[in-house]
Structure formats: structure tokens, C-alpha cells
């Protein structure tokens, strides 16, 4: 990839939009694709080279294609579906798959692309919407040296931490999935602990204060239990995201014939929360599966 | 308590020894009690006012008694057993119970002491041996204003963070137990994640690096998984400590008729590790319950 290279980003959700903006800011000729015309229009106004609701329209111009749709099934549809772009990419274009998907999917997609002569980097990202917007993501990559080298300008534009896990596609996704195992279990454990505190009539504000200053703390406890203490379940990341991600964790473990006592339990907790109607609330709403407790409620002003 | 007050510490394990030393350093006339004469002798050389293998010998001199034995049963034996000290304490002596015990035990002990006219502060501690030695513990207290005020010189000598949870003995212990719930689940989750990484042939050093720089991190992951990466299971805190503490968590939840899906699972994991022969190893050895993986082993030099 030369400095005047063209990079396409498919999927302009909160993460994809941040990635596309970071590419523009880094001086890359950036193309955006999303089914939602409003997202396309927003990126055009940020200085995109061009936008489209159909990736097929721009595929032939790209030196790099970043895929940031919701799941493995969507990645496959974008690349190999009816109007799939894989066959339309020019020789030398490199695909970076940054959606969270199973290692099995990552390997399968890489080998289908390889059959078309296209190199792929398995490159899931972490850090949330704010770090996507500021170009400070963490990327866990695996794939050939060639794919990695060609995508360097994109990686440098979007991330401050880039890990090379190995040469085999699927390893990056595995690391991301194991990270999500911890994130999900930590949110569920935080909810379980705060629910028990509520049951024992411990002031939750005080419980939060003690834990966040002691060895029982986790990044997720500190970040998510603030929402519980404030009674604010506006979704930053939703319960259903962890139903999906812990589902991927479970799939990956099954493929490796490996038991996961805690992650399985946490998946059950998020699934119960989703079925109870909290799927679109903040993931800290997993605490609502516990009955027989009173949780703090947001005051009307805080809600507004 | 006046500056020239006499404080006794029963139980000179790693935590109790640190607490006693911190009292000496703060200028309090400090008495130490332990069944082990070597521990007594060590504290005498540090400047203790006096030491004894039997608390009954020194009870009458004390203005404050800190109990830091292993569990609730031992606390009861020290205070109310055959040679129990409760009846030997002078009027106005205040008892600070800093062992980790159930809220039920804490309430029971407080009410037995109250019947003898003795005030008690429920005051479990957190922070580990190093912070005990440096006088930088965290204390979660509950009890009467009077008990709290009288023990202030001791609290100031041993801790940098002192929380007042409420007036009712048992609340301090509940907060400590909920903290241990998180600590135990986080160690078990860290082990589960690293075991899955080992199964997937992800280099553990790299997995550690990614997690400790991302939202999946916890204090326990960062601290304990270092031991796994180095293959060093020298016990800082042992598996059996979490069999005990998560057992207290389970007891407390049962007393409140409250389900704990994750903590129950983590207790099963530590119990399995203990039964497999790892009870006296570092608590990170809970990872050894997973079969079908190869974990790093310490090189001979590192072991020495």
C-alpha cells in the first residue's frame, strides 16, 4: 500500500465510523460502505473519497478493505454473497476482517479468499467507540507477514496497540474471544456481587468505593457498576452483545473440546437477562435477573 | 484509648504480624499472642511490650484487642473458649475482630461480647501481607460510634483506608465477603481464560500482554496470571484460602436466601483444585483443574 492507497470500510456503525474517520485523518483515500444512507452521508461530509450502500460499486478501486460488520455471517455475505465483493477486488488488495467472529469462521474466510488470490489479516479490534473515533484502538492480528505489511498504514491510522499473535488466521480472533470471555464474566460477576450487596442492605455507593480501591476490582466492575449505582441503563454496550460474544466463546470452546465453567454460567445470565426483556439495555442490566432486591433508580434529571 | 494505651494482637500470621509491627511503629504499647513461640519471639525483637502463647496471660492489661486468627471458629475459641479472654478483659477494653468471618458469626460474637459489657468493632481487613507490614491496609468497619472512636489509634496505625459501613456488626464482614466473591471469581476466570488460550496454542505471555492492556483486565488477572506465565506456584495466597473464603460467601448467600451462579461455580473450581492436591499451592494453581493443556513450567533457576 502506497500513501495514496485507497481503503474501504464496510460497516459504518460506531466502530466502523471511527475507523473510517481515523483513516481519513491519516490521509488515506477512504471509501465508506453501509446499508444506511445516513451513515454514508455523514462519512462523506467528513471527507471520504466516496461512499456507497453497496460494496460492489467501489470494490475494484480498493487497495485495502476493512470489514467491520456485526458478525461472521455478515462478513461472509459481504465477501461471498450474491453481490459479494471478493471477486471484484483487484489483485493485491488485502482484506482486514475486524468483526468479532469465531476462529473457525476466520480460518474459513481466509482460505476462501486465498483461493481467489487475496490475502487476509484476521484483525479483531478492542477499545470501544471513543477509542475507535480517536484512532487509539487495540488490534489483535494474525495472518501472513505480507498481509500485515500491506495493511500497516491502516493499522497505524486506527490503533495505538497492534499485536501480532501469529501467522495463522484465527489466532487473532481467538485472542479477542478469550478477551471477551473475561469481559463478560467480569460484568456478570460485578452484577452478582452488587446484587448480593443490595440484598444485604449494604449501600451500593460504598460497596463500589471499597471494591474499586481493592484487589477485587476489575476494569469492567469500575466502568459498569457506575451505571448500576446511578440507575442508568442507557446502552453503551448492550446485554445482547454479550449474548452474542459469550456465544462465540462457547462455540470456540466446543470446537476445542474444552470446558468453560464460568463463561457458560455468565452466558446463561446474559441470556436470561435478554429473555427478561433487557437485551437492548446496557450490559450492566444483567443485574436485573436477580429478584428480591431494590436497585438504585435514576432521578428524572439524570435520565434526561 | 490514650496514646499510652496497650493493644494486643492475637494471631501473628503474615497479616497479624504486620498489624502488630505497625502498632509498634505508631508508638502503641503492643502485645503479641500466638501459639507459635517463634512468632512471639520475632515480635518481641521488633519492640513488643510483651508476648505470650496464651492470650489469657495478658488480657487484663489491654485497652484494645485485635483478633486476627484464621476463621470464625478460632475467634470464638480465643474469646469464649476454655481459656477464653473475653471474661478477663478490663472494662472499657474494645475488641476489634479482623479475621474474615461470616456476618452471622460477627453478629453472634458482638452480642456475646455486649452481654459482658464489651464493645466490638467488626473490622475485616484487605490488602495482603505487604500492606499489613507497611501499615497501609484497607479496613471495612461496622459497629458503634464508641467502638470506632476508641479503636482510632489502632486503625490509624495499620490502615490508609478505613471505611465505616454502618453501625451494625456484620456489615463490615459482609462487605469483605462480597469483596472476596469478586477476588475469587476473578482468579478462577483468569485461570479459565488462560487455560483456553493454552488449549488454542496462543502464547500465554502474549495473551497476558493483551488482557492487561484492555478492558478484560482485573487486579487479580494482572497479579496472579504472572505466576502462571512464569510457572511459579509458590503460595502468596493459597488455593485453600479461597475454598474457605468462597465457602463463607456461599454461607452468607444462603443466610440471605440469595443465589450466586458465578461464585458457586468458582467455589467448585477451587474445591476441585484442592482435592486434586493443589490446596497449598498459590491460588492461581486453580488453573491445574483443566486437563489437556500444557502450562509453562518454571526454569530451575527461577524455582531456586
Describe what you observe in this structure.
The structure is a homodimer of 304-residue chains. By secondary structure, chain A is of the alpha/beta class. Chain A folds into 2 domains: 6-168, 3-Layer(aba) Sandwich (Rossmann fold); 175-303, Orthogonal Bundle (N-(1-d-carboxylethyl)-l-norvaline Dehydrogenase, domain 2), CATH 1.10.1040. Chain A is 50% helix and 13% strand. Chain A contains 13 helices and 9 strands. In chain A, strands 3-2-1-4-5-6 form a 6-stranded parallel sheet, with helices on both faces. In chain A, strands 7-8-9 form a 3-stranded mixed sheet. In chain A, α4 (103-115) links the parallel β5 and β6 (120-122). The longest helix of chain A has 29 residues, at 171-199. The first copy, chain A, is globular and about 65 Å long. The mean pLDDT of chain A is 95. At the A-B interface, β9, α8, α9, α10 and α12 of A face β9, α8, α9, α10 and α12 of B.
Summarize the structure.
The first copy, chain A, has helices at 14-25, 37-45, 72-80, 103-115, 128-134, 145-150, 152-158, 171-199, 204-212, 219-230, 239-255, 261-278, 300-303, and strands at residues 6-10, 29-33, 50-52, 64-67, 94-97, 120-122, 125-126, 137-142, 159-166. The first copy, chain A, is α/β, with parallel strands linked by helices and 304 residues long. Chain A has two domains: 6-168, Rossmann fold; 175-303, N-(1-d-carboxylethyl)-l-norvaline Dehydrogenase, domain 2 (Orthogonal Bundle).
Amino acid at each position: 500500500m502506497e500513501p495514496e492507497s485507497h481503503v474501504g470500510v464496510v460497516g459504518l456503525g460506531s466502530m466502523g465510523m471511527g475507523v473510517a474517520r481515523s483513516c481519513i485523518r491519516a490521509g488515506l483515500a477512504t471509501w465508506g460502505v453501509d446499508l444506511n444512507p445516513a451513515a454514508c452521508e455523514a462519512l462523506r461530509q467528513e471527507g471520504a473519497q466516496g461512499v456507497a450502500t453497496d460494496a460492489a460499486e467501489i470494490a475494484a478501486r480498493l487497495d485495502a478493505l476493512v470489514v467491520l460488520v456485526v458478525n461472521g455471517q455478515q462478513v461472509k455475505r459481504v465477501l461471498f454473497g450474491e453481490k459479494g465483493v471478493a471477486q471484484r477486488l483487484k489483485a493485491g488488495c488485502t482484506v482486514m476482517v475486524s468483526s468479532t467472529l469465531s476462529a473457525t469462521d476466520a480460518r474459513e474466510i481466509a482460505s476462501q479468499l486465498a483461493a481467489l488470490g487475496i490475502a487476509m489479516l484476521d484483525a479483531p479490534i478492542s477499545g470501544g467507540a471513543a477509542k475507535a473515533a480517536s484512532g487509539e484502538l487495540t488490534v489483535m492480528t494474525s495472518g501472513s507477514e505480507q498481509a500485515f505489511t500491506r495493511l500497516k498504514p491502516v493499522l497505524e491510522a486506527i490503533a495505538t496497540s497492534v499485536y501480532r499473535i501469529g501467522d495463522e488466521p484465527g489466532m487473532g480472533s481467538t485472542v479477542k474471544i478469550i478477551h471477551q470471555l473475561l469481559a463478560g464474566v467480569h460484568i456478570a460477576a460485578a452484577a452478582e456481587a452488587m446484587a448480593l450487596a443490595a440484598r444485604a442492605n449494604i449501600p451500593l455507593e460504598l460497596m463500589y468505593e471499597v471494591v474499586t480501591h481493592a484487589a477485587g476490582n476489575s476494569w469492567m466492575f469500575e466502568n459498569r457498576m457506575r451505571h448500576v449505582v446511578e440507575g442508568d441503563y442507557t446502552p453503551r454496550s448492550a446485554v445482547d452483545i454479550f449474548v452474542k460474544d459469550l456465544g462465540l466463546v462457547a462455540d470456540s470452546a466446543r470446537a476445542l473440546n474444552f470446558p468453560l465453567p464460568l463463561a457458560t454460567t455468565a452466558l446463561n445470565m446474559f441470556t436470561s437477562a435478554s429473555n427478561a426483556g433487557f437485551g437492548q439495555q446496557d450490559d450492566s442490566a444483567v443485574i436485573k435477573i436477580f429478584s428480591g432486591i431494590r436497585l438504585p433508580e435514576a432521578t428524572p434529571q439524570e435520565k434526561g
